[in-house]
Amino acid sequence: MKLFGTDGVRAKAGESLDSFLAMRLAMAAGIYFKDKSITKNILVGKDTRRSGYMIENAIVSGLTLVGYNVIQIGPMPTPAIAFLTEDMRCDAGIMISASHNPYYDNGIKFFGADGNKLSEDIERKIEEIYFDDKLIESSKVTMNEIGQAKRIDDVIGRYIVSIKNSFPKNLTLKSLRIVLDVANGACYKVAPTVFKELGAEVIVINDKPNGLNINENCGALHPENLALEVKKLRADVGFAFDGDADRLVVVDEKGEVANGDSLIGVLALYLKEQDKLKASVVATIMSNGALEEFLNKQGIELQTCNVGDKFVLEKLKMCGGNFGGEQSGHIIFSDYAKTGDGLIAALQFSALMLTKKKTASAILGQIKPYPQLLFNLKISQKKDLKKIKGLKELENHLKSKNISFLFRYSGTENLIRLLLEAKDLKLLEKEMKGVVEFFKKVL
């Protein structure tokens, strides 16, 4: 597809993603959803990027031009849009966010009436409408058929209630000192409120969004700053979120940043011990080999899927599971949310600490991930990997050294992600140099 990537449409705001594209894409989405309309309402939320104003206004224009009413709720986490779309009986939901990307990027994500991200088939149909000039032109409405738009500022309460309901009623956070890094992003109001209302002693950092500082040296992409605060303040645990709060990174009381697969593993075991784990756990093809080893020892099956939390969710539906996630911090508890939700994951980890009466480091130390190296290489073009000469020989060489590997293009940037995993770190470092040089030459 030309527009949609692994998680909606994402690009540099004002260039590839400008108000013209946003308006036409909103029209295309409105045309698609109109045939299945029940309420004629579409929900629109955003994170804290300055470009969100431009894109939001364009989306409202596009939707109202094809006869849709729009409910604007301002800065809210992506999982809140998923929840509220269904809760408020909207035909669809739209989130304006580029997630963990820098402020100068932005994106548009779509949710169906059931709160789930759209399938690739539906994204493809919307894209076909986008490029159909005649259909776009003929779908414009006039006079009293033009849609309305209204802004609602109090829906945050609905989401807070739903988040708190995921936390065990018999527990309280009163014994925990927690540092939250909200990444100057979409959860800067929600996260502190939830943890304070559940009784925690809360210290919040990076909660002053100005439109340009989202994800900047903070949040899930830069947990080292949170680690310093946790140690300095002698906190029990630290939670870092990304710009739209759909991913979580945990820092233990020693200031150690937890591996995402370790987090998935201990949460899976916690669910099993609570007799709440259904079927298999789902992780992506980037998951660490130590995760599967740990889960199998606990009698838990692991299934894998392509990278992207929507693929994790699709696989969970296929296997009848209710828990999975990505190494990057997208953790899905499908009993409570339709997408990765950093806040729900943080509360579940807090509940695990309280239930076990153990420190974060003791819990996370149960899994020792194998060394992995990830290198993001900027490239000029995305060639078909199957047609690159010499790649098969390189892969056979890595296999002979007992090195697991994954080479894949980013769905949102001009990058190839090169991942190697083995038990010997020195061997990994040596082999990664050769892998990087190979892809530099061919791409």
Note the main attributes of this structure.
single chain; 443 residues; alpha/beta; 17 strands; 19% strand
Summarize it.
The chain is of the alpha/beta class and 443 residues long. It contains 15 helices and 17 strands.
Strand composition percent: 15-25%
Q: Report the span from N to C terminus.
A: 21 Å
What would the principal axes of the Cα set say about the shape?
globular
Average residue-wise pLDDT: 95
Low-confidence stretches: none
Describe this structure in words.
- The chain has helices at 19-34, 51-65, 78-87, 120-130, 133-138, 156-164, 190-197, 224-232, 260-273, 289-297, 309-319, 342-356, 360-364, 391-400, 425-442, and strands at 9-12, 41-46, 69-75, 92-96, 105-112, 149-151, 177-181, 201-205, 237-241, 248-251, 281-284, 302-305, 323-325, 331-333, 372-378, 404-409, 415-421.
- The protein has 443 residues and is of the alpha/beta class.
- Strands 1-5-4-2-3-6 form a 6-stranded mixed beta sheet, with helices on both faces. Strands 8-7-9-10 form a 4-stranded mixed beta sheet, sandwiched between helices. A 4-stranded mixed beta sheet has the order 12-11-13-14, with helices on both faces.
- A hairpin with a 6-residue loop joins strand 9 and strand 10.
- The protein is globular, with a radius of gyration of 22 Å.
- The protein starts with 8 loop residues before the first strand and ends with a helix.
- The mean pLDDT is 95.
